[in-house]
Amino acid sequence: MNIAMAYVVSKQLEKSVVGKTICNITANQNPHTFVWFATEPSQVYKDAKAAGDVAKYLTNKTIESVNVNAGGYGLYNFIHFGKRALLSDIVPHYTDIGEKHPKKHQLLLDFNDGSFLTFSASLGGALFLFETDKNGNAIGYEPGSSLINSNEFTHDHLLALIDNNKDKVLSVKQLLATKNRIPSIDNNLLQDILWEARVNPKKKVNALNKNEIQRIFKAIKTVPSAIIAAGGKDIDKDIYGNYGNFHSKVSRNTVGKPCARCGTKIIKEAYLGGSVFYCPTCQEV
Question: Which of 43, 60, 118, 186 could be 47's S-S partner, Cβ–Cβ 3.0 to 4.6 Å?
Fold first, then answer.
């Protein structure tokens, strides 16, 4: 999950589920190879019995607050219950009173008013129930990097990241959206950032000039805010199942269509086990 989607989800969860009490839990009804439960950081990706422990703890608990933070291996929505928080990078689905439960899910929280929240992943994700400190951070699962919307993520921070990886001959996509170097950015968000910065995702980091680095930094700071303000991207569904209103310039929706900046057709290419979308004129390699 990227930071823009995480904040959209957090705002919606705050409106929909904070203050509600869980009356029933269904955990791991449909096991997924890449959906992991854990109650302790030391058992992340190791504890096959954790789903039952998560269900036991959450029963009759009231959701006190939600927020966004990074930890360990990524960016998560934190849903707080007393001394613990459910950390997840799966976009849940909120269903109002009177609707039927879906047939498949990895975690379902029934609330005492008849509404419910469902976590069902297609590619995978985390469902970690960790203890938190007085600041609401997961104990023993601290982030290794600052969120991009924080004051700590500066232009100098980005420069240091680039300098530390120049010898590895990485592409811009590899630097910004792999190995959890920047937990706030995933491949989805990366496409819009690099279109705005006019930088090709396949360009080598050691070939970036000062102006390109400055444009990347500016886009990192501005594009996520625009997506959040629009309620998400037009290719991503929120917790209510609705698409956002931010019109992505480079995505599956724009392949073969004119670039919004220069009119050249947007292309899609397989790259590093995924896809990249870009304008071959505005974003030359």
Answer: 43
